[in-house]
Design brief:
Elements: H1 4-13, E1 22-24, H2 33-42, E2 48-50, H3 54-60, E3 86-87, H4 89-98, E4 101-105, H5 109-113, E5 130-131, H6 147-158, E6 164-168, H7 175-184, E7 196-198, H8 201-205, E8 213-215, E9 218-220
Parallel strand pairs: 1-2, 3-7, 4-5, 4-6, 6-7
Antiparallel strand pairs: 8-9
Helix pairs in contact: 2-7
Length: 221
């Protein structure tokens, strides 16, 4: 997580105020832009959207583009941390022990299964986690699927109201795209039992050799 004061200064340098409508976009189906959406919501800023289809959709409509960098401004933003739920590694360990959480991993199947790992030092996934690659939330044009489709797609994960749903990935970035899709599907993130983000995700989990790891049919303790 960023330092809240540094994040406040960054938002202020962009000219963001509590009344600003922030539109985040990327060129990868919201995989990165959703992290900014989540951070702004965590900081107490509700007026934030994702550009559906991102930069490719903007270009496809031949809308104006330029290479200018806006001048930075002075000031800060009144960050109020804690408006989105987070869990840490100790929470995940406890949740796995007492079966009180459902882990949803947003990485592609090759990384989840341990068949490939281009980033981290160890391949595989946390035992018991469900694999839901973030691109499942997109249609063939790279835009988010309709609300009813997303509701049906998430139904089996969201139906378990007795356990906390926790979204994770490699480093807590693409996991936010799954959370964004859940909101599109009608999940209320102001609810006390709303899904949470495991910020450290896989990269933090494997820092300790004592934590269990699964890779294909192999279990490493």
């Amino acid at each position: 997580m960023p330092d809240s004061q540094q994040f406040a200064a960054l938002l202020g340098s962009w000219g963001v105020t509590p009344e600003t409508h922030v539109v985040a976009y990327d060129a990868s189906g919201g995989a990165v832009a959703a992290r900014l959406w989540w951070l702004l919501r965590w900081a107490g800023h509700d007026y934030v959207s994702l550009l559906d289809g991102g930069y490719p959709a903007w270009q496809a409509q031949k809308l104006p583009v330029d290479a200018d960098q806006p001048a930075l401004m002075q000031g800060g933003y009144p960050v109020r941390p804690g408006h989105m739920r987070v869990v840490n590694t100790a929470d995940v360990e406890q949740g796995l022990e007492d079966d009180s959480l459902v882990l949803v991993d947003a990485r592609e199947a090759e990384r989840f299964d341990g068949r490939a790992e281009p980033i981290d030092t160890l391949a595989g996934h946390i035992p018991g986690a469900h694999n839901r690659h973030f691109r499942i939330n997109l249609d063939a044009l790279g835009r988010f699927r309709a609300e009813a489709d997303l509701q049906e797609s998430f139904r089996h994960l969201l139906s378990d109201t007795d356990r906390q749903l926790v979204s994770m990935c490699g480093s807590g970035v693409t996991a936010c795209q799954n959370l964004f899709a859940m909101e599109l599907a009608g999940v209320d993130f102001t609810d006390a039992g709303a899904p949470a983000l495991y910020v450290g995700s896989w990269s933090e989990w494997i820092r300790s050799a004592g934590r269990p790891v699964e890779a294909l049919l192999e279990t490493i303790n």
